Amino acid sequence: MAAGMSEVSTILPKAGGPVEVVSDEGLYGVPDKMKNGFSGARQRLTAAHPLEYSEINFTKNQERLDMKMLRNTQGLHAPLKLQMERAVTSKIRRLPCLPSSMVALDTVLGTDDVIGFEDYLGDPLDQEVMGDAHSLMERKLGIH
Predict the structure, then answer these.
(1) Residue 31 pLDDT > 80, yes or no?
(2) Over the stretch 131-141, which tens digit does the pLDDT of each residue have?
(3) In angstroms, rounded to a whole number, what is the distance separating the alpha carbons of residues 108 and 29?
(4) Where are the alpha helices (DSSP H) in 48-131?
(5) Degrees (nearest 5) of the Cα angle 99, 100, 106?
(6) Most confident region among 22-31, 52-61, 81-90 by mean pLDDT
(7) Which end of the chain has less neighbouring CB within 10 Å, N or C?
């Protein structure tokens, strides 16, 4: 090769093993709305108000401040213990087709006595779509 010429990449297939292509399309090439639900227009919209970002991140910022204050007053072990308790209690779930109340996580977070809009507007028992238990479990385990 001459100086200054780089090696040209080929278009030949490379040995890398099988690649699985995952699509939300159904049997006839149309997205399966019964399994995947409708796509929301909310994700494509921008913030409606300048304070919306602050309100969305309020609890995360408040938890960060609480952990910093706890670390300064009681040492590093206290926030680490709380984070470990939160991680353990957030993994406790039911089957994908059954709603989880997350009582243990609410107790650890201290929100078990607080009633917010998500308690009566986002109730999983009021869902309009009930999924197939077998399909949901296969999707969760990565079998399907």
Answers:
(1) no
(2) 788 888 888 88
(3) 45
(4) 52-56, 58-74, 77-90, 103-109, 117-121
(5) 145
(6) 81-90
(7) N
- What's the pTM value of the predicted model, to 2 decimals? 0.52
Distance in angstroms (rounded) separating the CA atoms of residues 44 and 35: 22
- Average of per-residue pLDDT across 107-134: 77
Residue 1 lies in a domain: no
Pairs from 127-136 (Cβ < 8 Å, separation ≥ 24)? 127/99, 129/34, 129/37, 130/97, 131/35, 131/96, 131/97, 132/35, 132/97, 133/95, 133/96, 133/97, 135/35, 136/95, 136/96, 136/97
Query: Which residue range forms the structural domain that includes residue 88?
Result: 47-141
Residue that is written with structure tokens 């494509």 in the block: 44
Q: Considering the domain boundaries, does residue 37 fall inside one?
A: no
